[in-house]
Write a structure and sequence with these properties.
The chain is α+β, with helices and mostly antiparallel strands. It contains 13 helices and 20 strands. The chain has an eight-stranded mixed beta sheet with strand order 6-5-14-15-16-13-17-20. The structure holds 8-demethyl-8-dimethylamino-flavin-adenine-dinucleotide and P-hydroxybenzoic acid. The site of P-hydroxybenzoic acid has 10 residues, from β15.
């Protein structure tokens, strides 16, 4: 098989890139390790930056999103029962959009299928060859037979556990990592959200987040121990713990119900550099991870796709390689700022096992400063709604 861009990974990064390239007449093939149903069963991001939404529009896949999404002009921060709002609209003139990653991925799959896009599911043993030369190729196993795709470029969109990053030689690759000593236990429940804006809650018992997907579907998280397993947490225990961490008035109106999904995500910050090696480009979780506290994971994946897409269009339409040559530099400049913001929000709002009483007081003082200081709120708001591409 031959294509212009071989894309490894059929998550949101890979599908969005494939769809954007298609809009500009550039051919791609997407290789996905799992089935489509499996990818769609993963409950992940919920908060999208306007930059992401604009990219979906450019890809021609924003119709349902524009109809069904929820615009959030602000968020609530609480600490030990006192809460305050951060008004994004007032502070930055912008907002964020609530529309689940599952729906984003579904819309992208539908668009790729409608356009006759080539997506190969359940591939195994993907290998990238000759990325440092002029004629790369990708090999993989499908139904017991080895297949090969010759291409001009390879986009590694295969997430944190993928193979693309490993294709960059160790002598070239630098990795930066911070692992946090806790995880997030998340549940999805068919109950109305407790609040019309998200609540980020810091408490003596640990962090909690009240989020949502729509008027009838809520997403809640509580900070948990890394040794916990979702089976150990009954729904009743989850709701009780959540209520103890969020402001009392919110706990009183919280509607509880059976969970329809329950999972634990460990928290990690991770960046790999460079994000380009010859004709191989890393995008999204394949290159970097943030703790979910700032809602930046999918949004940073989208900015990578923006830079790569424009670089490839420049290459094919203008015969100019400036965009692909500077891809890594441009993507990383934005990534590190999102890494900083996500690390900061995580550090501000979580309970760390080795924290002293002094550390807790400093955290409380920082939350109080944020509550009282417009400049501090503006810093949060500008980062949360998304820095410019
Ligand atoms: P994905 O989604 O991991 O997709 C990678 C795809 O590649 C496939 N794959 C392979 N295919 C072929 N060969 C191989 N060897 C392969 N290895 C892997 C996988 O099966 C998969 O389909 O990466 P992508 O596309 O870069 O997208 C990244 C986002 O999924 C991720 O950053 C976000 O979900 C992070 N995130 C959030 N981001 C936000 O912007 N806003 C949020 O509100 C937000 N909330 C979250 C989150 C992530 C969470 N978890 C579970 C980590 C909340 C949570 C709890
Ligand atoms: C979510 O709705 O899943 C969500 C929202 C905000 C975050 C993280 C996750 O910061």
């Amino acid at each position: 098989m031959r294509t212009q861009v071989a894309i490894i990974g059929g998550g949101p990064s890979g599908l969005l890139l494939s769809q954007l390239l298609h809009q500009r007449g550039i051919d791609s093939v997407v290789l996905e390790r799992k089935t489509k149903d499996h990818v769609l069963s993963r409950i992940r991001a919920g908060v999208l930056e306007v930059g992401f939404v604009n990219l979906m529009r450019e890809a021609g896949v924003a119709e349902r999103m524009d109809r069904e999404c929820f615009i959030h002009d602000g968020t609530v921060i609480s600490r030990d029962n006192a809460s305050f709002g951060i008004n994004f609209k007032d502070l930055t003139g912008s907002h964020v959009v609530v529309y689940g990653q599952t729906e984003v991925t579904r819309d992208l799959y539908e668009a790729r299928e409608a356009a006759g896009g080539r997506i190969v599911y359940e591939v195994e043993g993907v290998g990238i060859h000759g990325a440092d030369g002029d004629a790369p190729c990708v090999t993989y196993m499908k139904d017991g037979a080895e297949q090969r795709i010759d291409c001009d470029f390879v986009a590694g969109c295969d997430g944190f556990h993928g193979v693309s990053r490993q294709a960059i030689p160790l002598g070239v690759r630098r990795e930066y990592e911070k692992v946090y000593p806790f995880g997030w236990l998340g549940i999805l429940s068919e109950t109305p959200p407790v609040n019309d804006e998200l609540i980020y809650a810091s408490s003596e018992r640990g962090f909690a987040l009240c989020s949502m997907r729509n008027e009838k579907l809520s997403r809640y998280y509580i900070q948990c121990s890394l040794s916990d397993s979702p089976e150990e947490w009954s729904d009743a225990a989850f709701w009780e713990e959540l209520k103890r961490r969020i402001p009392e008035e919110a706990a009183e109106r919280l509607v509880t119900g059976p969970s329809i999904e329950k999972s634990i995500a460990p928290l990690r910050s991770f960046v790999t550099e460079p994000m380009r090696w010859g004709r191989l480009f890393l995008c999204g979780d394949a290159a970097h991870i943030v703790p979910p506290t700032g809602a930046k994971g999918l949004n940073t994946a989208a900015s990578d796709i923006h830079y790569l897409y424009h670089g490839l269009v420049q290459h094919y339409h203008d015969r100019d390689d400036e965009g692909i040559e500077r891809y890594s530099e441009r993507a990383l400049a934005r990534i590190w700022k999102a890494e900083r913001f996500s690390w900061w929000m995580t550090t501000l709002l979580h309970r760390f096992p080795d924290q002293s009483a002094f550390d807790r007081r400093i955290q409380a003082a920082e939350v109080a400063f944020l509550r009282d200081n417009r400049a501090a709120q503006t810093v949060l708001a500008e980062n949360y709604v998304g820095l410019p591409y």
